[in-house]
Amino acid sequence: MTDSPMIPAGPSAAGVPGYPMPRAAGCPFDPPPRLRELQAEAPITRVQWWDGSTPWVVTGYADQRALLADPRISADSIHPSHPHRAAGMREAHQKHGRPFIRMDDPEHARLRRTVTAPFTVRRVEALRPAIQAIVDGLIDDMLAGPKLADLVEAFALAVPSLVICELLGVPYADHGFFQENSKLFIRRDADPQQGAEADQRLLGYLDHLIGDKLASPGDDLMSEVAARVKAGELSREEAARIGQLLLLAGHDTTANMIALGTLALLQHPDQLAILRETDDPAVIARAVEELLRYLSIVHIGHPRAALEDIEIGGQIIRAGDGMLLPAEIANRDPAVFPYPDRLDIGRDARRHVAFAFGPHQCLGQNLARVELQVVYGTLYKRIPTLRLATSLDQIPFKHDALVYGVHELPVTW
Amino acid sequence: MKVTVDTDKCIAAGQCVLSAPEVFDQREEDGLVVLLNPSPSADVAVDVKQAATLCPALAITVED
What ipTM was assigned to the predicted interfaces of this complex? Predict the structure, then answer.
């Protein structure tokens, strides 16, 4: 998931607006203003993508939900019109294979169902005490050190990394290796070569781990995956790739929700105070849904292509057209969420599409929910004086990254 | 109220269990939906309707 330079926003020669569009200066939590105009004036419209193609951008909540659940829509990344984020990705997916999230049913369903069991509501709920212990341990470390830390490094990246270790069944002795390499892998925008090497080391490690779990299975996800290899349901390569997908999908996303969510709450002290003072799990769960809606960190748009002509919202999307469905604007649709730009942790935001919708909706969503409930329900209570160690305009935002967030978040207390 | 589920469509997202745990559960082996009560009482109607609305696979049908 490397990022390539994007074309500048603004109308192109043909009058088709460039995409992605910039967020407004000083409004890092809000979607690009031009996307909001499109939602009001032309909710299904063509834009110009970095490679010169003109996929549709769909900005309305109802239209996005309808399309994401429509079997005439393909998520297959080797489809010729699939809007890739960088050059060479279609070829790479063709040549080296692709994760199941970039396939269509029935192949997608076959592979997805091999790893759904560990992500049921009951199974992730059973991880809550382990997640609480991880979060408490990291906060202990922060409090024992100097009263100045980068929350991204010290906490936000570490929580999901250690949770994934727990989930996959990575032995404690390997946590350091795992954390270090997954960090390099996630942060491949900083140094693509280092990221690619870390990627290979992790894939090799996961293959090795599958070997270990075949020999001595435990009560963890990679043992279950290994059992499916043994039963002939998955190839060993498919199994390692599934481990890699779960690592990537659950790491960067959760880390950005933790850091960006904390920044948003620090900018809304009245909302932060509610979280700091409550012990009610329902209040915390509601806050998590609202932060998922408000931040919509998987931004710029879910890439899809139409397999048949589809009439929607007064437009006809033709078979073979590409499209992008950005959650950050659907989740600010005033027809669904009144005063959509207001962060209101008391509202019922469960209908958000932050985890997408349709057959590809996030596999790890309930694990993410528990992680964020533990984090938001613990961090501000344990460090009640937590505050920014710099000003908002000094914070570097990940504007062009696949997952939106902050590169670093200097905090003190 | 009459509830039906389609396990062929189900993607094991668990949204129904979060919405109405008295009515929906997930199979241990693959997380697919288990309908605990096809005729739930009126006091959980709002929760069951929310489950149907939130189901990403459109696998839940509710008839009044």
Answer: 0.96
- Put simply, the answer to whether A69 touches B56 (Cβ < 8 Å) is yes
The confidence band for A4, taking pLDDT boundaries of 50, 70 and 90, is very low
Nearest to B56 among A119, A357, A366 (CB): A357
Q: Which residue of A has its CA nearest to B52?
A: A351
For residue B53, list chain A residues with Cβ-Cβ distance below 8 A. Answer: 351
How far is it, in rounded angstroms, from Cα A351 to Cα A39? 18
State residue A130's pLDDT score: 96
Residues B36, B25: Cα–Cα separation, whole Å: 7
B39: containing domain: 2-63
Task: Show residues of chain B in contact with A348, CB under 8 Å.
Answer: none
The size of the A-B interface in CB pairs under 8 A is 53
Question: At A10, is the pLDDT very low, low, confident or very high (cuts 50, 70, 90)?
Answer: very low
- Could you report the per-residue pLDDT of A341-360, keeping only the tens digit for each? 999 999 999 999 999 999 99
SS3 A402: coil
For chain B, the domain total comes to 1
A60 at interface of B, judged by CB pairs closer than 8 A: no
What percentage of residues in chain B have a pLDDT greater than 90? 98
Specify whether the CB–CB gap between A69 and A358 falls below 8 A: yes
CA angle A299, A305, A308 (to 5 degrees): 145
pTM of the shown model: 0.93
Q: What is the CATH number of the domain that holds B56?
A: 3.30.70.20
Q: What does the domain layout of chain A look like in residue ranges?
A: 33-412
Q: What is the mean pLDDT of chain A?
A: 91
- CA torsion sign, A274 to A157 to A236 to A238? positive
**Token pair of A215, please?**
């020999």
Which residue is closest to A121 within chain B, CA to CA?
Answer: B14
Whether A110 contacts chain B with CB within 8 A? no
CATH number among 1.10.630.10, 3.40.50.2000, 2.30.30.90, 1.10.530.10, domain A33-412: 1.10.630.10
CA distance B20 to chain A (A): 12
Residue A13 scores a pLDDT above 70 = no
Sheet of strand A44-46, all strands in order from the earlier edge strand to the far edge:
A44-46, A56-58, A322-325, A302-306, A73-74
